[in-house]
Amino acid sequence: xxxxxxxxxxxxxxxxxxxxxxxxxxxxxxxxxxxxxxxxxxxxxxxxxxxxxxxxxxxxxxxxxxxxxxxxxxxxxxxxxxxxxxxxxxxxxxxxxxxxxxxxxxxxxxxxxxxxxxxxxxxxxxxxxxxxxxxxxxxxxxxxxxxxxxxxxxxxxxxxxxxxxxxxxxxxxxxxxxxxxxxxxxxxxxxxxxxxxxxxxxxxxxxxxxxxxxxxxxxxxxxxxxxxxxxxxxxxxxxxxxxxxxxxxxxxxxxxxxxxxxxxxxxxxxxxxxxxxxxxxxxxxxxxxxxxxxxxxxxxxxxxxxxxxxxxxxxxxxxxxxxxxxxxx
Length: 329
Prior knowledge:
Layout lengths: L10 E3 L5 E3 L6 H5 L3 H19 L3 H10 L9 H13 L7 H7 L5 H24 L5 E6 L5 H13 L8 E8 L3 H13 L10 E8 L6 H9 L4 E6 L3 H4 L2 H14 L5 E7 L7 H10 L7 H9 L4 E9 L3 E8 L1
Parallel strand pairs: 3-4, 3-6, 4-5, 6-7
Antiparallel strand pairs: 1-2, 7-9, 8-9
Helix pairs in contact: 2-12, 4-5, 4-6, 6-7, 9-11
C-alpha cells in the first residue's frame, strides 16, 4: 500500500485477521509524526492543563481517565504500539473513539521520540561490536518487550547503515513478557520483513517468545549462558525500569551479568525522579492512575551500586524520559 508516490507501508496480520502497519522509524510518515518543538511546548503547558482538569466536575474527569486507555495501571504493549505509530501510519486502522482521540495527542509523541532515540543508541553500540567481531552471532533479550519495536527497528537502522554486517550471522530476538499479543504480532512482523524483496530477506533472524515474570529472572541467566559467545544486548523500553521495583531491577541486572559476555550491554528508558520530572507528566500519571516508578539517574546509580554494571551513557528527553546504556564494570 502506498503512503505516497514513493513509500510503501508494510502490514502484518494481528488477531482476527486485522492488518496493522509494521512500525518502521525510518518511514517518512513516522518522521512526520514527530515535531519536537511542539512536544516541548506541550510538556511546558501540561502542568497548567492538569490543574484545570482537576477543577472540572467529577463526571468530566472520569471521562478523561477512561479516554486515557489505562488498564491495570499501565498501557498494554499493543496500545503502546498504536501510539508509537502516530496519526498518519495508523490512519487506515479501524479505531474506537478513545484511541482515535489519543493517537492524535501531542503528549504521546514522547513515545515516538523515546523509541527513535533508543534505537539510534542501540544501533550505534551494536554496529561497533559487529564490526569488531564478524564471527559472532547477535542476541537481543527484550524484557517486557511487547511487539519488540526497539529491537526490530535497531536492526532496521543497522541494515540501512551497513547491510553486510548482518549477513552470515544468526540473529535472535527473545521477547521476555507476560503478554502474548505483542510478541505474536512481532513474530508476524519479522515474517513479513523476511519475504523476498523486503528488508530482512536472506537474513537468519529468529524471534522467540518467553513467558517471563521479572520477579523471577532465573530464565534470563540460563538463556544468556546458552549464548555466552554471542554479542548480547538486554533492553527494556518502557518496562522494567519504569515499573519494576528496585529489587526486581537489581535481580534482573545481576542475573544477566552472571553469564553474559564481557562486552554485553543493557539499555532502556526510565522516568525522572519526582523532584525533577515534568510536573505535567507527574500530574497526568497520578491523575489517571498509572503506577510509574520515578527512578531518575540518582535512583539508577543507587541500584547500580548493588550490581557490577556502570552507567555508560544517558540521554534526556524533556525532563520526562532518560535513555541509558550500561556496561560491565
